[in-house]
Amino acid sequence: MIPYIPQEIKRPELILEAPSAWKGLESIIGDIITRFGIRTDKALEFGVEYGYSLVALSNFFKRVMGVDHFLGDEHTDAKNVEGMYEKVKEALSAYPNIQLFPKSYQDYMKAHRFNGPYNLIHIDIVHTYEDTFACGDWAMKNADIVLFHDTESFPDVKRAVQDIADKHGVEFYNYPFHYGLGILCRKPLS
C-alpha cells in the first residue's frame, strides 16, 4: 500500500447538502483524475446513500450512474428509510448528468455487464470483505480506475482492496483521511 498525497486539494463547484462520511474526499477527485490521466466520459458508483459522492463526481464526469438498493445496510445510519429512493431521486433531479439505478450491485452487474467500460468506478457498499472483493474485482475488469471508500474505518475493506490489487497486478494507493479512500488504477501515477 502506497500513501496517496494529493498535489491539489480543491473543492468542486457543485456540492449536495446531505449527510455523508465522504465529506472532504470531493476535494481530491480532480487531483486523482489529473494524476492518473483518467478520461471523464462515464463514472459509476456503487452505494449512493443520499447522493453526496455522486454529485461530487458529477462535477468531473459527463455521465454519472449511481447504483443502490436504497434500503441501507448494517454499516450505515440510513436503514430502511421510508421512500429513500424517491427522496434521493428528487434531491438529484437538479443534476442532469446523473442517472440512478435502484438495484443491488449484484443485479446491476448482471443486467448491465455490457454497459462499460467506465472511466471510474467508486465503491461504497456494505463493508464486508466478500462484497467489497466481488464488486471491486468486477469493477477492475470494467474501469480505468476504481475507488473504495472506508479503507481506514473497515479493515475488511482495506484487506479486500489489497487482495484485488494483488490479483490484478496494480498498486494500491490509499488516502487515509475522511475514513480512507483506496485507489486502484492500471495507469501509473504521474
Describe the structure.
The chain has 190 residues and is α/β, with parallel strands linked by helices. It has helices at 29-36, 52-58, 84-91, 105-111, 129-140, 155-168, and strands spanning 2-3, 42-46, 63-68, 98-102, 118-123, 143-149, 172-175, 181-185. The protein has an 8-stranded mixed sheet with strand order 1-7-8-6-5-2-3-4, with helices on both faces. The relative contact order is 0.19. The mean pLDDT is 93.
Specify the structural class: alpha/beta
Helix content: 25-40%
The total number of structural domains is 1
Mean pLDDT: 93
Q: How would you characterize the largest beta sheet?
A: 8 strands, mixed
Number of strand segments:
8
Q: Percent of residues in beta strands?
A: 15-25%
**Radius of gyration based on Cα positions:** 15 Å
Written as H for each helix and E for each strand, in order along the chain, the element string is: EHEHEHEHEHEHEE
What would you say the CATH architecture is? Answer: 3-Layer(aba) Sandwich
Give a quick precis of the structure.
The protein is an alpha/beta fold. It is built from 6 helices and 8 strands; from the N terminus they run βαβαβαβαβαβαββ.
Task: Give the secondary structure arrangement, pairings included.
Blueprint: E1 2-3, H1 29-36, E2 42-46, H2 52-58, E3 63-68, H3 84-91, E4 98-102, H4 105-111, E5 118-123, H5 129-140, E6 143-149, H6 155-168, E7 172-175, E8 181-185
Parallel strand pairs: 1-7, 2-3, 2-5, 3-4, 5-6
Antiparallel strand pairs: 6-8, 7-8
Helix pairs in contact: 5-6
